[in-house]
Amino acid sequence: MNTDWFIRFEEYLHGQMGREEKSVFEAELSSNEEMNAAFQVYRTIEAEMNLEIQQHERRDELSRSLDQLNGKYFSTGSRQSTRVVSLLSRQSIRALLAVAASLLVLLVVYALFFQSSRSPEYLAENYVDTHLRQLSQTMDASQDHLQLGISAYNEGDFDRALEHFQQVLKNAPDNYEAFKNIGLVYLMTGQYEMALQQFDELAEMENLYSNPGKFLKAVTLMRRNEATDKQEAKNLLEQVVREDASGRDQAEEWLKSF
Amino acid sequence: MEHPDQKYITALLNNNLELLDELYQKYSGKIKWMILKNNGTEADAADIFQDALLSIYHKARTKGFVLTCPLDAFLYLICKNKWLNELGKRKGRPVTILEDEGYNMGEDSFQLAEECTLQEERLILLLEKIAELGDACRELLHLSWSGLTMEGVAEKLGFTYGYARKKKSECMAKLVILVKQSSKFSELKW
Q1: A122-255 has which fold?
Q2: Looking at this predicted complex, what is its ipTM?
Q3: CATH 1.25.40.10 residue spans of chain A
């Protein structure tokens, strides 16, 4: 295949040809079947990939909204929470991963240039991955449902985890650990409204040595990242620092990025 | 002619949560029912529904897309195709012929659903073939698709403008050859 064609395709599609040159090019396309076929594929690739690369953030935002609505309209349990929604169906994930891996270096460079990795949403996502995906088992063997709930949570079976944590609360309504973990289940499964409500109530609980309610509410808002969420999260993080509450160090660190 | 349901397409493009919620309210139940009736679970239904909306979003973001038929028939056809594909992959499970109950399937619905599926399959093939290119090509092409001019791409990579153009033409030539050699190429409209 003639690579000179491709330089001309680029010029034509980017309006870099003069009128006469354009007419000659179009005439050649009409008369040369092979060149025309290559041009059609070239044009489609350019159009598809420009959209794919330039609009990935918008698509990711839409995916998050759909995740949230899926949580509301379908009982999807753990599956939804662990699923990374992509524009493409699951069959393409392997291909996506291969491309993603190869572009990793680029993304690092990109992040250095644009600091997108410091966005509150990214920080929250990273925090959830490193700190909230696995819960520590408690030492109290008498709280069977709590232990079972934590095990289910750590296995990603959030439906079962929720049932156990709710059972704990049925027997002991003031069990702070179960209360917090229910909020975490909602956070992990993208049911942000429920998570916020849970962490709000947790923040109101008194007589706790260290209350993470406000901090976890801030994490939820950062992860959800809707219109006023960032500001609200910032206010909460400032309160956490001022009150020296649970999550203080992390809050202080994050506030530098806001 | 633009159908009044175009508002849902705009909602997908603008990530309008209020209208998307309305869309879920109106259509998710029917899709859930169709999948539950055909060996699926509610989690399957959620996946299929979401994948279908993302396919529609992908189609809608191309310039000049107009919805000319009711969304429910269009959405149903995409979900049905996706679910039949999924069932086909899960060997051993019986595939019921899905009945298109209560839908007004106009020609437009079939055509839009087909275009949507083709577009998605083209992108899948493209991503596969891009992964087969060398690192240098992938890097250059990614930068050029990210919205940079070729001058910008050349500057980022420390190339001259002329070399960057030449290199891009070579990389695209390789990519076009890979795509055309694929057995799926002829099925997809380019």
Answers
A1: 1.25.40
A2: 0.84
A3: 122-255
